[in-house]
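Q: For a teaching handout, I want to show students what a protein-ligand complex looks like in token form. Below are the inputs, and the small molecule is nicotinamide-adenine-dinucleotide. Please produce the holo structure.
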Amino acid sequence: MTLLDGKTLSQKIELNVQAGVKELKSRSGSVPGLAVILVGQDPASAAYVNMKKKACDRVGFYSVTHEMPEDISQDAIENTIKMMNNNPNIDGILIQLPLPSQIDTTKILELVDPSKDVDGFHPYNVGRLTTGLDGFVPCTPLGVMELLKEYDIDVKGKNCVVVGASNIVGKPMAALLLNANATVEICHIFTDDLKKHTLNADVLLVGVGVINLIKEDMVKDGAIIVDIGINRAANGKLVGDVDYENVAQKCSYITPVPGGVGPMTIAMLLSNTLKAAKLNYKEKN
Ligand code: NAD
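A: Here is the structure, written as tokens, with nicotinamide-adenine-dinucleotide included.
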């Protein structure tokens, strides 16, 4: 069994982004800028934003976090986004999800200028992804594809089973696999007999949020396992959706949690923001 080591690859990608920032700065005089909107006090969201901010600092981006109270109005968030859409120092805008229930999340995501949509959540970029056109692709599934590429895993013609069908993980994951010519199945909470589907997987990609959802008897011998889940276990440790100890004995490749897909997500945010900055610079010159 080989570990799909996202930590090491993400460090490599960060070095490339760092070099890209220097190169862009020497041409344009400015560095990529990322703005983050963080609403409320959720500790997990605050921790993710903090990790993203630190990563921005490491590669030399300009970054700003707009922290807003839980009871913020729709108008106030919208005004902040409009401001950032018009701010030439900002190349990427990230809205940390989930937003509180009084906020219309769809309206917020649709307000982000698609050329600054480094999370790839705007319907314009979602449409470009599903039609196989270049655009901004959600960071987590993009990171998975980079990780597979690093280990020379070509999904073409393989049975890829995605468990979880959210807009930010499962659906874009499936679209990327399909674009890479895999045969793709998507399972979700209403899928009948999950095991029947997962046993068919050459590559099993799981992003659900349920500890130990995937057990050894649900996995084909020699399968490639990508665990996208991040859950806090009762003992405080971070774990994925796959029963790692037992499944690892059976598969050919597996991502650890932590150290697999998580660091790749942040690396892809950096590379998407650098891409946005380069495109924005090109447009202006
Ligand atoms: P979500 O709640 O929006 O979606 C969960 C999906 O899983 C849904 O499609 C649902 O139908 C499906 N599901 C739920 N229970 C199921 C079950 N018992 N069997 C089959 N399918 C089931 O969650 P999300 O935002 O997509 O996140 C999913 C997981 O991925 C979470 O653990 C989250 O923390 C993690 N995540 C990790 C990263 C990363 O960087 N590695 C990034 C984003 C999300």
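A: Two things your students might notice: The radius of gyration is 19 Å. The first helix runs from residue 6 to 28.
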